[in-house]
Amino acid sequence: MVNHPLAATRLTAMREKNTEPGSFRAALHELTTMLVYEAARAFPVERYPIDTPVAPTEGIRLANPPLLVPVLRAGLGMADSALALLPESSMGFVGLARDEETFQPRAYLESLPADLSGIPVLVLDPMLATGGSLEHCCRLLAERGCTDITVICVLAAPEGIARLERSGLPLRLVTASIDDQLNDKMYIVPGLGDAGDRQFGGM
Ligand code: URA
């Protein structure tokens, strides 16, 4: 959990129902920067020789920059700020829809490297609600050999956290808030509504 006054003010702007899409997107960008910054604390670094204008010294670089994977569509609003903070990263994309017959999540887009062994992945999705889609997304990554997944989300419901814990997948979660519960329409309560509609307008 990222517990910081500046994260809390951005989250408040996102929760407030009268916040316009432009301001909502700006708050999501800034909050994503903070969440990715915290997630990156655990990243291994390596030292290498550099020269300042004055003298040789030692520099630091990420030993193994992560692949960033925004989950379409709501995760798109997190992509730019994550990539700005991790310019050495590359980006894949996963698009998930609900199968109309089975009601299970189904990937309509999997733009990912075939082999993810040895590559840490940051999954970007603002809302962890039931956990069904995020579990599906993380399984796709694990099937490609990924053993190091960090899910970055703005809000998490206890139900979704429990599901990811039960999944046995190699993941950790970074979030700005664990909210109370899901309602009967599977919205997070108190939540912020539909994160896609709030960013891009209702369809
Ligand atoms: N997805 C959203 O965008 N909002 C919720 O509250 C739950 C899932």
From TrEMBL:
Organism (species): Asanoa iriomotensis
Gene assigned in the entry: upp
Protein name: Uracil phosphoribosyltransferase
Cofactor(s) for this UniProt protein: Mg(2+)
Gene Ontology molecular function terms on file: glycosyltransferase activity
Family affiliation: Belongs to the UPRTase family.
Pathway involvement of the protein, from the record: Pyrimidine metabolism; UMP biosynthesis via salvage pathway; UMP from uracil: step 1/1
UniProt cross-references to PANTHER family, sorted A to Z: ADENINE PHOSPHORIBOSYLTRANSFERASE (PTHR32315), URACIL PHOSPHORIBOSYLTRANSFERASE, CHLOROPLASTIC (PTHR32315:SF4)
Chain ranges of the Phosphoribosyltransferase domain: 2-201
InterPro entries attached to this UniProt entry: PRTase-like, PRTase_dom, UPRT, UPRTase/APRTase
Keyword Electron transport: no
Record keywords, A-Z: Allosteric enzyme, Glycosyltransferase, GTP-binding, Nucleotide-binding, Transferase
EC number per UniProt: 2.4.2.9
Cleavable signal peptide: none
Domain of life: Bacteria
